[in-house]
Amino acid sequence: MNFASTFVIAQAAPAAGAQAPNPLMTFGPLILLFVVFYFLMIRPQMKRQKEHRAMVTALAKGDEVVTNGGLAGRVDEVGESFITLEVAPNVKIKVQKGAVSQVLPKGSLKSS
């Protein structure tokens, strides 16, 4: 027998007592990766969504806000899904509540 034939025979016959790999060890890295993604990406995003939802529901007439598009104005009217912003004297626009990115402290618009 030459070296090549013994190599083929050794590969064809499984070792005696060889066991199947542990399923936990097989899926362990995948589970670990999901846990890392949850704590680094999913959980913080859910927290930001919850804070934004609370901010939007707390909007009231007279609040000064900035929209996602960069418009700053004072809330003139609050509806079910839209708010009316006064961006200049006698200039009012209607935007979706979800478009509000932040609520400014009172008096911010007068100082700018």
UniProtKB/TrEMBL annotation:
Q: Which residues cross the membrane?
A: 27-43
Report membrane topology: Single-pass membrane protein
The alphabetical list of record keywords is: Cell membrane, Membrane, Protein transport, Translocation, Transmembrane, Transmembrane helix, Transport
* Entry GO terms, CC: plasma membrane
One Pfam family, short name: YajC
Which InterPro entries does the record match to this protein? Preprotein_translocase_YajC
Which top-level group of life is the source organism from? Answer: Bacteria
Main location, first listed in the record: membrane
Name where it's found.
Cell membrane
Q: Could you give a single Gene Ontology term from the biological process aspect?
A: protein transport
Query: Family per UniProt?
Result: Belongs to the YajC family.
Q: Which PANTHER family is this protein grouped with?
A: SEC TRANSLOCON ACCESSORY COMPLEX SUBUNIT YAJC (PTHR33909:SF1)
Protein name per the record: Sec translocon accessory complex subunit YajC
